[in-house]
Amino acid sequence: MRILKVFIFLLFIMTCTAIEKEPNLKIQPYFNKAKVTIDYMTPGIFSLKLIDQLIQLKSKGILIRIISDRTFESFPENLIFDASKHFSIKIIDAKFKIAHNLLIIDQKEAIIGGAYFPAKQLLVDNLASIKDKNKLHNIYLNFQDTWQNIQLSQTRDSLLRFQHYIDVNSSENQIDSNTAPKSGFVASKNGKRYYRVDSKSAKRISDKNRIYFESEELAKNSGRTRARNF
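Above: the chain's sequence. Below: its structure in token form.
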């Protein structure tokens, strides 16, 4: 028994990899097997390559549905908001509900496994393929029930938490000093910190580089952190 535990531990270590660039999960090639539908449940999307891959599959007429949760909503590396521009996405309004990836291909095969932990840049990448009809049917029903139970209004609210950037070229951010808001928060478009609009540090930011946020939550969701001289 002890030898078995050691073997399992070593297997886990072997499947954990430190990531220096965006993670490439072993599950990604399986998406290309789809001919009709892709149902994907994931704790987060951290790969631009995966988004590009899914866009190409969508252009071929493949229907794509994605379910995620709020576990990694505060991580700028999580591209769920970006993905929502291209695919049907629903967000479970809770954290730690999805532990790993689940991919259902054409309701004929399910691939389970693989996860990425951005805080530690750790990749756990062991997979299991399920083709048994009864097991696959239950997995699909669980996905379908989860999808139907998530309200669209709930997803819209949750997706705002994943918006980690501000379009600096947007007309909303082209504000001169005469029309600048007197309250709220401000940051430099090139900076990593945000400030109160009325703080001394905020006044040092040139008008052309200013980005405004109505609330501190929006400032945080841009990927910035509160300045010490807030």
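The longest helix spans residues 133-149.
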